[in-house]
């Protein structure tokens, strides 16, 4: 153990501090805080003689501070502040040494007006929009018929009954997993965020509805809290926001996948109307029957027209016509072939006569003869066959042998 620490007063039982010394030390430490500005909601306002005691509550958490303010500061305000109002205060920590307690002394107090709150919400909306949290392309579609619906609403609230009753009226078998939470006040953001995260983790919940059903502007402020908006943006299950009425637009409406104007409107959006679906099925069935009947009648008419054609009325007529056409074609082909054969036969005869006239046989038939030597060579001159040479003489009707004489 550090010997220096052991020697300090109050560190060991042998050197205890007096109560006033401890109180003085705490007062000196708190005095270093100086003055600070704090924003919150007035939970209590208790006027006393010369002083008004206030309880300033955090708007998002169950935490509060005790304040006191001089009557002069309260009287200097342009408008009076009442319990439930949002205020901005400049305070200085005030340690009361005799009682060992601390309160904050209010040096300045300002009411936070609706206009200022709306300006802050607009700035936050622009910031979140710039991050893409409100983009349409990140919004998830609602299922046609969810297996189970998560519902976050006030305990025993009209909004809960509106959603459940109207949904069951539209689709009687619809199932709900309900989380009843604070839908305004300091616990709202924490409880709604926790319920949303819990329902998102349940596998068969296909859509989550957050329902309140309107209220004063200040009551709806938790549904514009940045931390809640980011939780809604982070869940995987489609979220339907039914917080305000038509004119109310808390920031949750922009980040939710679907914005419903009322809890009843939310019920209409999350489940189909069974009666309407049945009517649509009947209408579709009737249209299909009409289309089928119309097509059958058209085809029947076309079939009747086809049956009444001459070819189908008397099929033999078509066959007889085809036979006549075939016979005519055969006759024409026969005549053409016959004429062609006659022409070619005449050409052959003419060519044959020409060839015969020009052939050696034709020459022999006209009285000429061909003389060949014993070697078979044609004798063309007398000098080539001296006397005594044997030759062969070819006539038109045959061949004979002869010998050349001297005469």
Can you walk me through this structure?
It is a single chain. The chain has 407 residues and is α/β, with parallel strands linked by helices. It contains 13 helices and 13 strands. It is 43% helix and 22% strand. The chain has a 5-stranded mixed barrel. A 5-stranded parallel β-sheet has the order 7-6-8-9-10, with helices on both faces. Strands 11-12-13 form a 3-stranded antiparallel β-sheet, with no helix packed on it. A hairpin with a 6-residue loop joins strand 2 (51-57) and strand 3. The relative contact order is 0.06. The mean pLDDT is 85.
Quick description:
The chain is of the alpha/beta class and 407 residues long. The chain contains 13 helices and 13 strands.
Q: Can you identify the CATH class of the largest domain? A: Alpha Beta
Helicity, as a percent range = 40-55%
Give the count of structural domains. 4
Class based on secondary structure composition and strand pairing: alpha/beta
CATH level-two architecture of the largest domain: 3-Layer(aba) Sandwich
Please provide the count of β strands: 13
Query: Gyration radius, to the nearest Å?
Result: 60 Å
Whole-number mean pLDDT: 85
Count of DSSP helices? 13
CATH topology of the largest domain: the name is Rossmann fold
Separation, N- and C-terminal Cα atoms? 178 Å
- Across the major sheet, the strand order is 1-2-3-5-4
- What is the multimeric organization of the chains shown? single chain
Spell out the helices and strands N to C: HHEEEHEEHEHEHEHEHEHHHHHEEE
CATH superfamily of the largest domain: Succinyl-CoA synthetase domains
What is the makeup of the main sheet?
5 strands, mixed, barrel
Low-confidence segments, ≥5 residues, pLDDT <50? none
Strand content: 15-25%
């Amino acid at each position: 153990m550090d010997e220096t620490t052991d020697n300090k007063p109050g560190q060991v039982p042998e050197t205890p501090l007096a109560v006033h010394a401890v109180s003085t030390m705490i007062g000196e430490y708190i005095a270093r805080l100086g003055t600070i500005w704090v924003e919150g909601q007035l939970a209590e306002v208790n006027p006393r003689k010369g002083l008004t005691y206030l309880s300033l509550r955090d708007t998002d958490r169950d935490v509060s501070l005790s304040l006191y303010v001089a009557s002069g500061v309260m009287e200097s305000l342009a408008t009076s502040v009442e319990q439930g109002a949002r205020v901005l205060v400049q305070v200085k920590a005030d340690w009361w040494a005799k009682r060992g307690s601390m309160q904050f002394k209010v040096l300045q107090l300002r009411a936070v007006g609706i206009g200022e709150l709306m300006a802050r919400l607009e700035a936050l909306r622009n910031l979140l929009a710039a991050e893409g949290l409100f983009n349409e392309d990140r919004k998830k579609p609602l299922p046609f018929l969810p297996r189970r619906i998560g519902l976050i609403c006030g305990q025993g609230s009209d909004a809960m009954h509106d959603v459940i009753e109207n949904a069951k009226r539209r689709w009687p078998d619809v199932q709900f997993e309900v989380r009843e939470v604070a839908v305004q006040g300091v616990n709202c953001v924490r409880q709604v965020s926790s319920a949303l995260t819990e329902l998102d983790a349940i596998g068969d919940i296909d859509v989550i509805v957050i329902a309140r059903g309107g209220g004063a502007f200040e009551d709806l402020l938790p549904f514009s809290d940045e931390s809640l908006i980011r939780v809604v943006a982070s869940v995987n299950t489609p979220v339907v926001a039914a917080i305000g009425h038509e004119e109310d637009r808390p920031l949750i409406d922009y980040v939710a996948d679907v914005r419903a104007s009322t809890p009843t409107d939310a019920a209409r959006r999350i489940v189909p109307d069974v009666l309407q679906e049945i009517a649509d099925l009947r209408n579709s069935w009737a249209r299909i029957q009409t289309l089928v009947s119309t097509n059958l009648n058209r085809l029947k008419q076309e079939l009747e027209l086809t049956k009444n054609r001459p070819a189908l009325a008397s099929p033999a007529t078509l066959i007889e016509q085809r036979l006549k056409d075939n016979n005519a074609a055969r006759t024409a082909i026969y005549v053409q072939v016959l004429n062609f054969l006659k022409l070619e036969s005449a050409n052959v005869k003419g060519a044959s006569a020409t060839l015969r006239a020009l052939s050696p046989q034709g020459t022999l038939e006209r009285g000429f003869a061909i003389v060949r030597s014993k070697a078979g060579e044609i004798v063309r001159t007398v000098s080539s066959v001296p006397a005594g040479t044997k030759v062969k003489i070819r006539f038109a009707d045959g061949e004979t042998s002869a010998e050349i004489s001297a005469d």
